[in-house]
Design brief:
This protein is mainly alpha-helical and about 100 residues long. It has one domain (about 1-95). The protein has helices at about 1-5, 15-25, 35-50, 55-65, 70-95. The two termini are about 25 Å apart.
């Protein structure tokens, strides 16, 4: 996912937050557990506090990770949103070429 969004990183507000969310969203993965996202979000929160990330950003990252819980619906909506943004950006960029 990082390769896909790196191309438009300058167009994404709070790119660091998105990056942290992507990195931590599956840091805990146990196929038999239903708490992977909660555990991943908790680890992200702990580590980001140590890094000195501000609390508002930590909360947003925490919430973004939790939204990945219903993978089939939420992830698809998020990906569709990002791809639509990327498409619109590329469409505008192409007009200026």
């Amino acid at each position: 996912m990082f390769e896909e969004i790196d191309a438009v990183r300058n167009q994404i507000k709070k790119f660091d937050n998105i990056s942290f969310s992507i990195f931590y969203h599956d840091i805990i993965y146990d196929a038999s557990s239903k708490l992977n996202e909660e555990k991943s979000a908790d680890i992200a929160k702990e580590r980001l506090q140590i890094l000195g990330v501000n609390n508002d950003d930590i909360q947003r990252i925490y919430e973004q990770i939790l939204t990945t819980k219903s993978h089939k619906n939420q992830i698809m909506r998020i990906l569709i949103f990002f791809w639509m943004q990327i498409y619109q950006f590329l469409e505008k960029a192409h007009k200026f070429m």
